[in-house]
Amino acid sequence: MRRDVFQAIADPTRREILGLLAQNPQNINAVADRFPTSRVAISKHLKILMECGLVVVQQQGRERICEAQPEKLQEVADWVEQYRQFWNEKLDSLEQYLAKIQNKDADNS
Question: Which residue among 20, 27, 36, 49 is least crowded, i.e. fewest CB within 10 A of its CB?
Answer without folding.
Answer: 36
